[in-house]
Amino acid sequence: MKKTIIFCDFDGTITESDNIVAIMKHFNPPGWEPLVEQVVNRTMSIREGVGRMFDLLPSSAKAEVAQYVFDTAKIRAGFPDLLDYCDRADIEFLVTSGGIDFFLLPLLEPFPIEEDRIYCNASDFTGERIRIVWPHPCDDECHTDCGMCKTTVIRRYPKENYFRILIGDSVTDFEGAKLADLVFARSHLITKSEELGLPYVPFETFHDVVRHLNTIQQGEG
């Protein structure tokens, strides 16, 4: 019997809004808006776009940026319930995020997720500007220059052995959605799933996700 595993996005999924966009809007460094637009319309890779966005900010702003996200980011309703459900149902739960460690890890710290279950980008503040580091790059099968490559992580859990669920909302989830057995989508991921003809389950809170998973489990029972 296949083991169930969830690959869950962070920005705009676990949190209610996209923290990278929120950071750029709040600190408003010149030149950030075209970069966001190019990443969203896929004329620039995620890795290049995110790297260039943070290069607009000085390393000295690290604490201020992290505190801003910590103070303003809201965890989507039902997230603790989803983690509890996964624990009870023996579902492996991974955070797969294009977000950055210095603001993502503090937000997830209150929740019972081991750090080796969290995949995200890293950061370097030793230079004048914030430099993003990419510890989880694309493998030979991915050529979209993701930065934090979700499909590379997903492929480590082969479909022969795992029922693979993706929960996401945006451009960093598009490629992963093509590999998943079940997709929970909101925002841009709904639009893209419909364009690609991919089946998906819409959600607004994690309570919706738990309800659907319960339905599946009862159907199997």
Automatic annotation (TrEMBL):
Gene3D superfamilies: 3.90.1470.20, HAD superfamily/HAD-like. It is an enzyme of class 3 (hydrolase). GO terms for biological process: L-methionine salvage from methylthioadenosine. It comes from the Bacteria. Its EC number is 3.1.3.87. Belongs to the HAD-like hydrolase superfamily. MtnX family. This is 2-hydroxy-3-keto-5-methylthiopentenyl-1-phosphate phosphatase. It comes from Paenibacillus oceani.
